Amino acid sequence: MTRQQKAYLYAAASVLIWSTVASAFKLSLRHLSTLQLLLWADIVSILCLFCVLLGQKKLGLLKSYGMRAFLRAAALGFLNPFLYYTVLFAAYDRLPAQEAQPLNYTWAITLSLLSIPLLKQSIGIREILAIFISYSGVVVIATQGNIFILQFSNGPGVLLALGSTVIWALYWIYNTRDKNDPVAGLFLNFVFGLPFILAACLIFSDPFSLSLPGLMGALYVGVFEMGITFVFWLNALKLTRSTARVSSLIFFSPFLSLVFIRFFVGEDIRISTIAGLLLIVAGTLLQQSEKKGGGEFVATG
Prior knowledge:
- The protein is mainly α.
- It has 12 helices and no strands.
- It has helices at residues 3-28, 34-55, 67-94, 97-104, 107-118, 125-142, 155-175, 182-204, 212-239, 243-247, 253-265, 271-289.
């Protein structure tokens, strides 16, 4: 098998797994509170990433990090996993999965908007058009197609889903300045995020009131959404001859996700969801095409 074939294999595995996580979130939240799901998924992801670092013989890297690196990891850990997944799971708790997933997918557009004040980047006509197209899709999904009435199906849920994109974009922007190994960095983020999650769960929920289906859901989310899929994606980007070619595969994920949502969650997929998602993806593609050579694209739940 060639390097490029391995890259496609890793990328396809990543896309397939990321396509299942919206369904996994929704099914798990039938048995767990948002904070319970986050707590146990984070613990599982820490164990998973520890095993990855052990297998890659990278645990020694952690000894070389100074206090500044650990403080940075703690700050990023507050953003992700604690704040990001708390808000994202709350959105999934309030919205149908077919609405929460596409709305969360607008994070790349949010990243473009936040890059203007935070990274001093300019914005062109094409990106303005991309933003307009994508957020037109948001309106279509959030109103379930009733765009002229502008009556949202669940206003707080929509705000939470869009708010999660702001948190993820901020995490992405600040994380780009981190020159350390990405897997080691993610491991530290999840380790330092754990005390925040545990404290919130002790105050607002019950960490130990669990059912077997809920625990299995947290195991799945921890291993796949928060764990090895990120490693698969990094391997795909490292092995490929064309980052843009591999990154383009990620646009299959939200559509495949709707298939899983239909069959596993049992939601009847609305025409407005498909139409809105097409607009969001079209806007994102237009925005990505502005970047020469294509950038690294990382999906979220």
